[in-house]
Amino acid sequence: MTLVEGGEVLALWLQRLMLRSPLSQQDQDIVRSFPGVIRKVDGTRDIVRLGERTSHVSLVVDGIVARFGQTADGNRQFTAFFIRGDMADLHAAVMPVVSSPLQSTCPTVLYQIDREIIRTAAAQSPSLAKAFWCDCVTESQIGAEWLVSIGRGSALSRIAHLLCELACRYGVMSGERDRFPLLLTQAHIGDAVGLTAVHVNRMIRALRESGSVIAEAGHVTIRDWDLLRRQGGFDPGYLHLNDLDSRSGLHIELELQ
Amino acid sequence: MTLVEGGEVLALWLQRLMLRSPLSQQDQDIVRSFPGVIRKVDGTRDIVRLGERTSHVSLVVDGIVARFGQTADGNRQFTAFFIRGDMADLHAAVMPVVSSPLQSTCPTVLYQIDREIIRTAAAQSPSLAKAFWCDCVTESQIGAEWLVSIGRGSALSRIAHLLCELACRYGVMSGERDRFPLLLTQAHIGDAVGLTAVHVNRMIRALRESGSVIAEAGHVTIRDWDLLRRQGGFDPGYLHLNDLDSRSGLHIELELQ
DNA sequence: CGGTCCGTTGACTCACTTCAACAGTAGTGG
DNA sequence: CCACTACTGTTGAAGTGAGTCAACGGACCG
C-alpha cells in the first residue's frame, strides 16, 4: 500500500533525474520500486534536526519541505525549498549526519526511503549513482543562484527571483507556469530571501502594482512573465528542467505538456 | 613530468576526500595517478566561461579559484572559493555545461584532469563514485552556510565568518590556524559576502580594532579566535575537516599535525 | 467569545551605499 | 630616470533602502 502511494511521486522524481542523466529501463524500474513509508506532518514542524543521524531520505509527496540554518541570535535562513517530486535530502544517503535541518512550511506528506536502499542501488548501478550525484549538483546550483540573488539583488528582485523559480518548478509538473500554489507565508518568504516579513509585504505590493505578479495567501498568479523575469534577473537554465539547456536564450518557453 | 607536479596536490585532495568517505588502497592509487596538465593563470582571469562545455576538471595547485554569478546590471557575486587541494569544478565531471563560471583572484596554478578520467573511475569503483559525490555535497553545504551568513548576518559578521572559514581550510593544511595568506582584495571579499569594497574596508578596520583579527593585504593574522568565531557566528562542523564530526561542540580544536 | 496567526500600513531609525578625494605601490613606456 | 596609468586601500560626507516598532483588521480555531 505504501508502495502504491509512493509510485506516482517516485515517477515524478525519476522524470526529473532523467532530465539530467539518462537511465536504462532496468535502472528506471529499480527507482520506481523503491519501498518507502508515508509520513504526514502538519503545519510548521521539524522533519530532521541538526546533528541527528538520519536513517532515511525524504521524497516530498505534497506540501513544502524547507532546509534552513540559524544564526546565534535565533534568526532563521532557508537555504532550499523542496516541492512535490523533489528529494529533500538525497545527500543524506552518503552523509547522514544532518548539517542543515529540515522543516515543513505547511501540511506536508513525505515518502521516506531507507538510505541503505539508495546506497546499494548506487553501488550496484554506476548510472544510478551518476543520476543521484547530478541531482545533488543541481540542488547545489540552485543554492548558488540563491546566493547571487540574495547577495546582490534588491528586495524586489530577490522576491521576484524566488517567485520565478517556483513558477518554473511547479510549471514543469502542472504544465501551467503562470499560476501555482503558494504554500508559504510572507514570513517564510522573508526567511528565504533574507528580508523581514514587513518588507516582504511591501515588496509584494510593489510587484502587484507593477503589474507583474499577484502573490496572495494561497496562490500566485503571474500577469507579466517577462516583466517578472526582468525584475528578478531570472534565467531558468540553472534549474535543468529542459532537455535543451538554454542558458543563452533569454525567454525560455517551458516544455508544456 | 606533469604527473610529478600533480602528485602532491592529488594527495592533498585525496586526503580531503577520505575525511568524508573511506577509500581502499586500490582506489587511493587510482586517484593518486590521475594524469593531468598544469595550467598557470595570472591575476584576475576567466578560467571557464558561462555556457561553455568543459572537457576537464580543475584541481587548484596554488592561488584561488572563485566561482561566481552575475546580475543583469553587471554586479558580481562569488558563490565559492577554492584553495590549494580543492577540486574547483568536480561537478563538471557529470554536468559539463558551465552554469556558474570560474575566475582566478590572483596568480593561480591548476592541475587539469580530463573529465572522462573522473567519469570512468567513478563508473568502475562505487566507493570512488561515493567519494566524489560526498565532495560535491560538502561544497553544497559550504554554500548553504554562506547563504545563512549573507542572508541573516551583519556586515561585520559576514566578513568574520568568511575569515573563519578560510582560517580552518588553510589551517588543516599548514597546521597553523591563526595565520594564513589572503589572496583576495577587499573588493573580492565584498563580492563574496555581498557588500561594497568601501564597507568591507570599514568592517576590516572594526575587526582589527575589536582585537579579533588583522586582515592585511597579503595575509590574515588571528589574534582572538574565540572572539572572531563569535563575531562570525561560525561553527566549523560543516567543513567536514575533522574525523569526529563536531557540530555539537562549540569550540573545535583543528587537528593540528 | 477570546486567542492566535497572518497580512497590512505608518512613522522613525540606522546600517550600508554612493560619491568623492587622496595616498601608496607596481607596472609601463618614453 | 621619470611621467603616466592602474589598482588597492583608506577616509569623509551625504543619501537611501530596509529594519524596527507599533497598531489594526480579518480569518481561523478552540
From TrEMBL, chains A, B:
Q: Which SUPFAM superfamilies match?
A: cAMP-binding domain-like, Winged helix' DNA-binding domain
InterPro entries named in the record: cNMP-bd_dom_sf, HTH_CRP, RmlC-like_jellyroll, WH-like_DNA-bd_sf, WH_DNA-bd_sf
Ranges where the HTH crp-type domain occurs: 153-226
Which one Pfam family would you cite for this protein?
A: HTH_Crp_2
Determine if Transport is one of this entry's keywords. Answer: no
| Keywords (A to Z) from UniProt | DNA-binding, Transcription, Transcription regulation
Q: Does the keyword Transcription regulation apply?
A: yes
Q: What is this protein called?
A: Crp/Fnr family transcriptional regulator
